[in-house]
User: What shape does this take?
Amino acid sequence: QVHLVESGGGLVRPGGSLRLSCAASGTVFSINDAGWYRQAPGKQRELVARSTRGGSETNYADSVKGRFTISTDHATKTVYLQMTSLKPEDTAVYFCNVEGMTRTLTEFSIWGQGTQVTVSS
Assistant: This one.
């Protein structure tokens, strides 16, 4: 089985920074694709950032380009979202999604439990 644990959310002032982590454990052999999504109250879940081909390709929502960076540490099986210049409109619950292979070469796709990010003065 594969498990994901998210961490790093919290309350930050506008202009501040946070780094979210999404650690995969269990029978993970490799992480191929990963993404961060967010859902604000009353809104649909939206894609924030995604990395594919093991992290060699990335794409971002227009609203976060130049401010957020997604990265993958393959040694620790952890996906990060570095967020800078945070704005109140970035307030949401952030979810990670990780796709990869288990040690038995079975594909998996799993979601994290979500972590709250609140940007407010």
